[in-house]
Amino acid sequence: MTTAVLTDRRPTATFPWREWVPSIAVATVIAALLLLTPGVQNFTILGDGGYAYVRSGPTPYGYAVVGGACVLAGVLLGRRWPVWATVLAFLPFLFVAWVGGFVWGWWLGLLGIAALAALDGPRRAIVPAGAAFLVALGYCSTEIPAFLPIGAVTSGTGADFEVYAFVAYCLAIVIVVGVATLIGSVQRSRLREESVDAAERHALEVESLAGERARLARDLHDVVAHHVSLVAVRAESAPFLHPDLNDDAREVLADIAKDAREALTELRQVLVVLQRTSDESERTPQPTACDVDDLVASAVAAGQPITLEGAWRDIPPATGYVLYRAVQEGLTNARRHAAGSLATVRRTQTGTTVGFRMTNAADGGADPGRGLIGMRERVEALGGTMSAVVVDGEFVLDVAVPA
């Protein structure tokens, strides 16, 4: 056996500002009605079912003002917290016995809270609808008057008429709550349809992106990987085709073959990433700042003169990946455009930034190629800066990203 528990929380985690519009609209209507209603005055009930105002004694005008403020506050909060809003709007009715009457707009406020709560489900309207029912029962079973813009009125002059009035009030509660529930159901259905449409559009975008990435991966594999693998095969087979090669030439060819194999490995990793959709997480470990030492050592072993200075500490993976790729691209440019020249990599780190400065002989210009453009995009994506200039015959690459 399960027990349904009434909760005073919205079924969703968020409460968009547009959902305050119905509450503000209902509160505006009730506020206008309260402003048009005369002030509550003390009066005495007569024996014939009528009433007469008492000309002596203070007029509890403050009671009407404070009561109206409580009701309006309850209406504004009714959709998000219907239970507490009902308690707030019901407070003025606790003093009806002292004053002898109430403002009819207060009861309309309880009905408005029930309607606003029903927009998010009929169960949320149980408490405010029950409070409106109790007020209507008390009003129709006594001679207590309610104040309207036309003046003070009672529920009727006889028992039969009071029963009819009570039935009318009950029907009004049921109809208003039912219509609000229907409106809320239609709104939720429309939102669900919009959510489904958005999910379908996202699925189509992901499918299109996956297809484009797969096509690009195939092109890279068919063109780039084919030529790189040919370089590796020719470098490995050259000593057998030319037995008269000396040991230095054989060592250079072996290094070329090794570099080609490593390039193929990295290319395969890129192809794997391209074949994934944007919603999938990366599974292949990516290089970090700690791998820069191995990168430099590999380049030095391949014959590139490099001086590595400084050190980095406690670099986040994303930042380390960008720094690794930037150093890799910088060393590649140095090999391509200034082969044989000394490249100096000086790592820097402060309390707010981390980066490096790489210098090598200039080849006559610092025109940005695709490598530098990709490096700049990676660095700026993390909010960093990158500059590549020629100073006194040296190509200077400065990279700095937030630490």
Summary, kept brief:
The protein has 403 residues and is α+β, with helices and mostly antiparallel strands. The protein has eleven helices and ten strands.
Describe this structure in words.
The structure is a single chain. A hairpin with a 5-residue loop joins strand 1 and strand 2. Helix content is 57%, strand content 12%. The chain has a five-stranded mixed β-sheet with strand order 6-7-8-10-9, covered by helices on one side. A three-stranded mixed β-sheet has the order 3-4-5. Strands 1-2 form a two-stranded antiparallel ribbon. The protein is elongated, with a radius of gyration of 40 Å. It has eleven helices and ten strands. The chain is α+β, with helices and mostly antiparallel strands and 403 residues long. It has helices at residues 20-36, 61-77, 82-90, 96-99, 104-118, 126-140, 159-241, 247-274, 292-301, 317-337, 370-381; strands spanning 43-45, 51-53, 102-103, 146-148, 151-153, 306-309, 343-349, 353-361, 385-391, 394-402. Helix 1 (20-36) runs antiparallel to helix 2 (61-77), helix 1 runs antiparallel to helix 5 (104-118) and helix 5 (104-118) runs antiparallel to helix 6.
